[in-house]
Amino acid sequence: MAEPEFTATGVRIGRRLRSLTRAGQIRIAGGRLELLTSYGSEIDSAPLREVRAGKPWFGPDDSATAEVDGRRYLLRLGDQSPDAGPPTARRFIEAVRSAAARTP
Predict the structure, then answer these.
(1) Labelling 52: which of 34, 65, 81, 95 has CA 20 to 30 A away?
(2) Is the pTM of this model over 0.70?
(3) What are the respective helix, strand and coil percentages of the chain, to the nearest 5?
(4) Which alpha helices (DSSP H) does 11-104 contain, by range?
(5) First-residue to last-residue Cα distance in the chain
(6) Residue 37 burial (10 A CB sphere; 0-12, 13-18, 19+)
(7) Could you list the pLDDT tens digit for every one of the 104 residues in the chain?
(8) Contact 39, 27 (CB under 8 A)
């Protein structure tokens, strides 16, 4: 299996007001986005051409939204130290957009 293009662990994944997991995982590999629980069970997945990622209008810097096949998820990716580079949420959004652009 190819090396994932983006992974994040310890992600809080929710839909609307419901929290699905507080320590989930996000993985972008092989042209697909996968949202997983902390145990590795799949919450949702889709080809990257069917995924939209962005920032919520209001919310902390460590949050992002992902729309997967019409279902919107709120992702709290956790903040990194300022020396570690760009925030994880911004890296996630950039990874989705660049991987989707490369996918035929």
Answers:
(1) 81
(2) yes
(3) 20, 45, 35
(4) 88-102
(5) 19
(6) middle
(7) 567 789 999 999 999 889 999 999 999 998 999 999 999 999 999 999 999 999 998 878 889 999 998 999 999 997 554 555 567 899 999 999 998 888 77
(8) no
